[in-house]
Amino acid sequence: MSITAILSAILMLTAGIGIFLVACQMMSTNLESASSQKLRSLFSKVSHNKWLGVGIGTVTTAAIQSSGATTVMVIGFVNAGIISLTQAATMIYGANIGTTITAQIVALGMFGANTLSTSVIFSAFAGIGAFMMLFAKKEMLKKLGGIITGFGMLFVGLTLMSDSMSEFAALDSVKLFLAKINNPLLLVLIGTLLTAIIQSSSVMTSIAIAMVYTRLISLDQGIFLTMGSNIGSCVVAIIAGLTSGMNAKRTALIHLIFNCSGVVIFMIVATFLGVFTHGDITFGTLFEKMFPGAPQTQLAMFHTIFNVITVLIVLPLTSLMVKTVCRLIPDYEPAQDPDAPHLYFIDKNMLKTPVVAVQQTKNEVINMALLANENVNRAFTIISSMDFKEVDKFRKVENELNFLNLEIVDFVVRLSEKKQLDATDHWYLTTVFRTVRDIERIGDYAENIVEYAETLQASQARFSEVALQEISELRVMISKLYEKMMKAYGEEDVEAFNEGDVIEDQIDDYTKQMEENHIERMASGICTPTVGAEYLSLSSNAERIADHWINVGKTILRRQQAK
Please, are residues 64 and 184 in contact by the beta-carbon 8 Å criterion? Predict the structure, then answer.
């Protein structure tokens, strides 16, 4: 075989790997976008049921064709405090099962060597999907075209890899070199390093399947390379964990321990098989008997069974694993101030899974609104009772509202750039900028009310009992308005918005009446001008708070129009 032929084979292999990687990314992006609502529904059902966590991790990874994306998403949830370490662990277990789907698809595409190959048939899907992407007018059809194109490109890349390896398989020097690499530990290490470089266990496993199929390596060699790919796949999670909080680091460590545990268990079993059968029985010989004449299926099925058995062994030990990682990574974080403002639901790692990040952004906005409403109530309590014991808590929450305003906007700007989002999601994200500004302004008006209380305290003045009663009724009305607007915003309930709109009109009328009543009290000498000025300012600020709550609720109308 000439040097030109060898160079051509290397270039073909490189091209195949490149097309395969692009195909995986294209399938992942379009699948994630098309299944956004289902993904949100799945993650909203996360509970303490371990099997449910495994199921959600499996289905999510099978849907978006990326265990790395699922793991990063889980790390983001843990970092935001949405799910516990135990729940995260079970979802990661499931992600390892879900990622074996790619290997099964690849194995399926290698049948039909003597007839019309399934790989050729599936490769044609790339052209079909491309035409759909180019000529379809509906957004969903374009996404479906992207999925079909990615699926077809998987087999285009796979064909190139297989053909290039067939060239290498004809070389006696290559066969002799690979035959020498039969040490299980060395093969696991090679699989680990290659997967860490490629950052995709699916690609590494698919390459191993192609090598086994072309007889470039033995089934046992492919099995140990695949086992190593499971360890190498932890690199993405480790990188995500290092840049996040303590629980995120623990989650990444759980992922590493889980994958290493499976490899150790199977390596021990392989060693005992070799010792007690004098090498007559190996994993390779077992799977050759189970699936005769189909080396690609043999390796793909090993990959699936390996992960399923590892989950069955490790799942009952999850609590022990969580305790272990908590001891290895204790709760001490000297660089962080526990009282410092922080995000509750979103995390930069979630940008890897945009469709879920949109829902978490909504949860973050709702939480910000909750904090603002709590401060409004504190402000009313302070000015009514002239008790300032909660003023420090008020100031802390006000600083947090300012922090959330900036951080949510920054996150949404980056999230808006993601192509996986559909038109409705983009519409929603454009409304977030105004919504968080409205909520931040509500906090500012609450701060004004506290300042009015401080002015009254400095002049040793108080509101009359009649005025306090009016303030109390106004406070109840604003609380009801907040509840209606949050129901409208959170559940996309137009009826709740309409009910809140009626309450807002009542608040407008009531604050006008408050002002007229107070002017009468000043005229009759019941209230002093100083007290009167603060009271009129309070009613004006309360009316503006109501206006901003209405603005928050109006988001639902724009979102309904975008659908």
Answer: no
Q: How far apart are CA 229 and CA 208, in angstroms?
A: 10
| CA-based nearest residue to 358, from 436, 420, 438, 405 | 420
Spatial separation of the C-alpha atoms in residues 113 and 324, rounded to whole Å: 50
Q: For 78-93, write each residue's pLDDT tens digit.
A: 765 667 788 888 989 9
Helices 465-491 and 354-385, interaxial angle, to 10°? 170
Q: How far from chain centre, in Å, is Cα 284?
A: 37
CB atoms within 10 A of CB 354: 23
Residue type, 134: L
3-state secondary structure (DSSP) of residue 151: helix
CB-facing half-sphere around the CA of 441: CA atoms within 13 A = 18
Q: Residue 358 burial (CB < 10 Å; 0-12/13-18/19+)?
A: buried
Integer Cα distance of 272 and 279 in angstroms: 10
Q: What is the C-alpha separation between 535 and 230, in angstroms, rounded?
A: 67
pLDDT digit string, tens, across residues 547-562 = 999 999 988 776 655 4
**Is 262 a residue whose pLDDT tops 60?**
yes
Rounded CA separation 527/463 (Å): 8
Write the DSSP assignment of 430-461 as a string of letters. Answer: HHHHHHHHHHHHHHHHHHHHHHHHHHHHHTT-
At residue 294, the 3 state secondary structure works out as coil
Q: What is the pTM of this model?
A: 0.66
Pair of tokens at residue 138:
């509906």
Residue with tokens 């268990």: 265
Q: Show the CA angle centred on residue 437, arms to residues 492 and 80, nearest 5°.
A: 70
C-alpha–C-alpha distance, residues 514 and 217, integer Å? 86
Other beta carbons within 10 angstroms of residue 494's beta carbon come to: 13
Q: Crossing angle for the helix pair 354-385 and 67-79, nearest 10 degrees?
A: 10
Place of tokens 């392989």: 270
Within 13 Å of residue 113, how many CA atoms lie on the same side as its CB?
A: 10
Question: CA 420, CA 480: separation in Å to the nearest integer?
Answer: 37
